[in-house]
Amino acid sequence: MSGELVRGGGASSAAVPLELRASHADRDRVVDVLTVAAGDGRLTAEELDERVEAALSARTLGELAVLTADLPTMAGGTAAEAKDDVRIEQRGGSAWRGDGWVVPRRMEIESEWGDVTLDFTTAVLTHDTLVVDLDMRGGTLKLVTRPGVVVDTDSLVVEYAKVKSRAAGGPGVPVELRVEIRGRMSFGRVVVRPQRRAFAR
Q1: Residue 113 burial class via C-beta count within 10 angstroms: exposed 0-12, middle 13-18, buried 19 and up
Q2: Residue 177: phi, psi to the nearest 5?
Q3: Is 16 helix (H, G, I), strand (E, B) or coil?
């Protein structure tokens, strides 16, 4: 079927011309597929950077299709499916989510004297809100954000703990994900910061 692309994951699945102009949503879907593929080890970091850059500057669906032609098609035509609930429980250790992880609708974190890092810089966003129910004593909850990801700690009860927050991006950036942290933090700290810029090689 030359010159056509079968589109899935939307309200309808139909063959569309590859020369059709791509929308922001089309580009975002391809970026999601690429980040999941990199998280699975199918793409190197360099390949991911090159393809994401090409996806963001693509003008047509054909240009986008080339970027994922050698990657497996996910069930239902979507890049990934998020679980509704994810639980992290630990004692004196560390937990990390990053490298294209799929953000759920809700997380429950129970931690004593350990660190938890949620890195959103390459995360796949399938919902517009993430609720984090926190029960943490000691250690650090670190959230690494990107433009469009905002963190709300207004409902968090803090006991002998600190909250340090620095937003990513500037004013006027549309909100893609709102992270609502609630529950309790004792004898530890919550750190919200943007990704650190890599040094030029």
Answers
A1: middle
A2: -145, 130
A3: strand
Are the beta carbons of 147 and 172 closer than 8 angstroms? Answer: no
> DSSP character for 47?
H
Give domain limits for the chain: 4-77, 85-194
What is the reported pLDDT for 197?
61
pLDDT in tens, 37-53: 777 778 888 888 899 99
Taking only the tens place, the pLDDT of each residue in 146-171 is: 998 999 999 999 999 999 998 776 67
- Give every CB contact of residue 102 below 8 A, 6+ residues apart in sequence: 36, 80, 81, 82, 83, 123, 124, 126
Tens of pLDDT along 130-144?
999 999 999 999 999
Q: What are φ and ψ of residue 24, in 5° steps?
A: -60, -40
